[in-house]
Amino acid sequence: MNHDALFAPLQLGTIKVQNRIIMAPLTRMRAGTGNVPTALNAKYYAQRASAGLIIAEGTAVSHQGQGYPGAPGIYTEDQINGWRSVTDAVHSKRGRIFLQIAHNGRNSHSSLLPQNSLPVAPSAIPPDLPAFTNEFKQVPTETPRALETDEISTIVDTFVQAALNAIEAGFDGVEVQAANSHLIDQFLQDGTNKRTDEYGGIAENRVRFLLEVVDKVSAAVGINRLGVRLSPFGQYGGIHDSNPLHLYGIAISALDKRQIAYLHLIEGRGSEIGLGDGLHEEALNNAQLFRSNFRGPLISAAAYTPSSATQTVSKGEADGIAFGRLFIANPDLVERIRDGLPMNKYDRSTFYGGGEHGYTDYPVAI
Ligand SMILES: Cc1cc2nc3c(=O)[nH]c(=O)nc-3n(C[C@H](O)[C@H](O)[C@H](O)COP(=O)(O)O)c2cc1C
């Protein structure tokens, strides 16, 4: 099959990417002490620099935003310096790299948080997934503490500082993590947001936190350097909404009006965070559903193969395709797609934590 459609350049805000094969954000839990990116992380990303755009893994905007042991942050000087070695390594291979900035909210565990405090959330409702402790043990999640109204603007400010830090560290832009049951998603969906203040209730109120983050981050670093990731109909951690079509229609139209650099949607057909290999064939197609709400560049993710990616871009349903698991196992995914070469298989047991095995030792084809 001819994959030319994936090799047309694409303007994403201030940057022009050379192909439409995008590396999805992938938490690998291999940062060093102090949640600082290391030389190994720089090597891993540089190996994948032929992606049109790398979206680096979910990275905590603050100590309170941490969710996983070994996940990086972007709130200390050492973390900024660590990330600079990553962006330098990618740029020296002419790659482009955004950072996904995230607050994990209720998915975290007190052992990872300041003074062992409880995870925070819009409402005191625990997720139905295990949490990771600071010692990489999986334990039942705790019931989070519901945020006070006046704490919310402080969290928005941590996103702003994180974005400024990311630009200082050399990133080409930032992606706001509003998908996959992270704090912003917890505010969006009414299964996790039972608030009675101006951040809860009707959908227009539940999108307020997202839009405050977007507006303040864009005022600081420019709307052209800001993408947003959403997972409409996502169910990770038991998250749900009573009317996702209405909610995400409102959120996406508001992002359209602001002219963000790109919108990144996760398809329900795959698994939002790649936990399983099964397909939900019955899932609605988010790219098709929401394309008419958003005029800017649309990146679609989850369960794509090179052929389905090419078809989706050729039909104009999305402008770029993000690959997760295929990029874990194939550092030269772009070249393999271009030349029609077979793919390495990923090893799920090495997704989270560990060293170079399953991280930087996947072979290139040629
Ligand atoms: C190991 C692993 C870590 C992930 N970490 C993140 C993350 O940090 N942020 C995020 O938005 N999605 C994360 N995801 C979801 C991926 O970005 C992607 O949407 C998902 O794997 C589906 O794409 P795929 O079918 O091409 O793998 C992760 C997925 C996997 C497998």
UniProtKB/TrEMBL annotation:
Transmembrane segments: none annotated. InterPro entries: Aldolase_TIM, OxRdtase_FMN_N, Oye-like. Gene3D superfamilies: Aldolase class I. The keyword Oxidoreductase applies. GO terms for cellular component: cytosol. Its cofactor is FMN. GO terms for molecular function: FMN binding; oxidoreductase activity, acting on the CH-CH group of donors, NAD or NADP as acceptor. Residues 6-344 form the NADH:flavin oxidoreductase/NADH oxidase N-terminal domain. Belongs to the NADH:flavin oxidoreductase/NADH oxidase family. This is NADH:flavin oxidoreductase. It comes from Acidisarcina polymorpha.
